């Protein structure tokens, strides 16, 4: 874990983790020279914003009865000279303080104005009052003002933003809820590498039965998006970020099916098949230069392992020694953040194991397929180059983990990632994660071993569309399958297991049909990273 320093003195007798400020284990380096990446401010088109990470504590829900879901609200303080308050910050009490809020400066005239009034959104025990600014016509509010007394804030306390610099929001993670009131994070509704919506870092209060709550606040919009490449990291800075933050993937000690580089995969007997010419597959060039380029996955081409059974089994196991990570770099949240999506390729995804009570049940071929692309994504601030979150992809979904909750390595700012046994879903900590229930489900086992891949030592930046300095390898634009599709009736496979088992275990196996992900219903090779929704969009 990282370091923690005191950030305020609590009025409560019980100390909460939020009362200490999180610091990375190691000081950040000076980033290589570039244009405006990590320069501290970003121009959204006449509205300059900065990311404030120092706060003044306003109030905590623990003052009205402490529980495991308490939160604290903060006001950014101090604000840099010339910048105005746009909103306040809210965070769970059970994690160290680690957040940000945007402040704004009008650099063109008319982008920021005072509200004309306030509406009380919520109050509690005469100790916290949350106010929605009333914007003048043509402007919108992007955050709340908060007081500890019932008097309205002064009109110059906070600023409203010109409407053309705002975007429609949606709720993010639930932060707190009580008595028909819920507090959520707020993010742009449309997100992706070409989307202009910008998170302010604030929160929204939603009351049960009040569908108008989300209409009260907006996110920001980067009207300068087409000119924002200067705020994104150049190649030297990308490499520095990889060296500073990239994970070490620890594979399970029993893992048989390890990753490999695409070059190794192509040069070890893998062949390209084409519909109608199945008897005449062709070897793949080491860079994938003879793979069909572009288009879509029309099912007419696919890759497959060597025909020779001995070679086939050898290639399935991958080649960790020469393994390599592949990195896609893209702007996110209106180019205020950069995502480093780090992909690993596995020649084979192994079979699944079910768990019923204390009994483990191998599921035969269920879960197997040739070719497996898995990833984690690092979300890094373009204001200062700080890592804020990591996404761990897991089957058809995944989990965002804030930086303070990462397992850091050797007092560095790099962290551990744990691909699961056979299935390669990636987790932030070792252990067993069940898909299903605590009684019956699919096991995802993750553990540390001496089998690992350090991304900082073995990686290729495979794509960064915003700069011509990154050339995509030919295989990136191969839109078809990286393995054949072999369909089978999953119900038939389950029935075979039921017939092979006795007693209560056998009778319970049928319930797995409701638990097993749909992608397990066939041996179906995946498409490559560029064909995934998260290539252009946000993580799921």
Automatic annotation (TrEMBL):
- Where is there biased composition of kind Basic and acidic residues? 531-540
Its domain of life reads: Eukaryota
Q: Which Pfam families match?
A: Vps62
Q: Residue ranges of region Disordered? A: 519-540
Q: List the InterPro entries hit by this protein, alphabetically.
A: Vps62
* TM ranges: none
PANTHER family in the cross-refs: DUF946 FAMILY PROTEIN (DUF946), F1C9.34 PROTEIN
Q: What is this protein called?
A: Vacuolar protein sorting-associated protein 62
Biological source species: Lactuca virosa
Upper classification of the source organism reads:
Eukaryota, Viridiplantae, Streptophyta, Embryophyta, Tracheophyta
């Amino acid at each position: 874990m990282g370091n923690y320093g005191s950030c305020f003195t609590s009025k409560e007798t019980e100390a909460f983790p939020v009362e200490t400020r999180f610091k990375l284990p190691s000081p950040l380096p000076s980033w290589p020279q570039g244009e405006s990446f990590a320069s501290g401010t970003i121009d959204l088109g006449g509205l300059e914003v900065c990311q404030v990470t120092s706060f003044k504590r306003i109030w905590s829900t623990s003052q009205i009865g402490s529980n495991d879901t308490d939160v604290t609200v903060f006001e950014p303080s101090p604000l840099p000279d010339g910048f105005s308050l746009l909103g306040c910050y809210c965070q769970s009490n059970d994690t160290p303080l680690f957040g940000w809020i945007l402040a704004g400066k009008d650099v063109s005239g008319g982008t920021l104005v005072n509200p004309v009034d306030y509406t009380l959104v919520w109050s509690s025990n005469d100790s916290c009052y949350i106010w929605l600014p009333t914007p003048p016509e043509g402007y919108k509010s992007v955050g709340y003002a908060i007081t500890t007394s019932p008097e309205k804030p002064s009109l110059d306390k906070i600023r409203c933003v010109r409407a053309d610099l705002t975007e429609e929001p949606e709720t993010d993670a639930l932060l707190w809820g009580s008595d028909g009131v819920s507090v959520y994070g707020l993010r742009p509704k449309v997100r992706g590498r070409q989307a202009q919506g910008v998170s302010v870092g604030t929160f929204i209060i939603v009351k049960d039965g009040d569908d108008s709550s989300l209409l009260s606040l907006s996110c920001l919009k980067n009207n300068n998006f087409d000119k924002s490449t200067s705020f994104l990291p150049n190649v030297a800075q990308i490499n520095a970020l990889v060296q500073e933050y990239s994970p070490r993937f620890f594979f399970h000690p029993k893992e048989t099916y390890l990753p490999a580089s695409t070059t190794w995969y192509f040069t070890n007997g893998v062949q390209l098949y084409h519909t109608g010419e199945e008897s005449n597959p062709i070897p793949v060039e080491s860079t994938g230069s003879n793979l069909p380029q572009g288009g879509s996955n029309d099912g007419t081409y696919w890759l497959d392992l060597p025909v020779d059974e001995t070679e086939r089994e050898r290639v399935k196991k991958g080649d960790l020694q020469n393994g390599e990570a592949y990195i896609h770099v893209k702007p996110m949240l209106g180019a205020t953040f950069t995502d480093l999506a780090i992909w690993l390729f596995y020649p084979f995804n192994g079979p699944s194991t079910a768990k019923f009570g204390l009994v483990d049940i191998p599921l035969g071929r269920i879960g197997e397929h040739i070719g497996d692309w898995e990833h984690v994504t690092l979300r890094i601030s373009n204001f200062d180059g700080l890592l804020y979150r990591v996404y761990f992809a897991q089957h058809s979904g995944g989990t965002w983990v804030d930086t303070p909750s990462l397992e850091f390595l050797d007092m560095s700012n790099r962290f551990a990632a744990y691909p699961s046994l056979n299935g390669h879903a990636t987790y932030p900590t070792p252990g067993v994660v069940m898909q299903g229930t605590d009684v019956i489900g699919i096991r995802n086992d993750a553990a540390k071993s001496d089998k690992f891949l350090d991304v900082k030592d073995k990686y290729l930046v495979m794509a960064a569309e915003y700069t011509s300095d990154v050339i995509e390898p030919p295989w990136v634009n191969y839109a078809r399958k990286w393995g054949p599709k072999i369909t089978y009736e999953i119900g038939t496979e389950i029935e075979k297991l039921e017939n092979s088992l006795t007693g209560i275990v056998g009778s319970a196996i049928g319930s797995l049909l409701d638990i097993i992900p749909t992608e397990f219903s066939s041996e179906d090779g995946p498409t490559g990273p560029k064909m995934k929704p998260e290539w252009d969009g946000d993580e799921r």
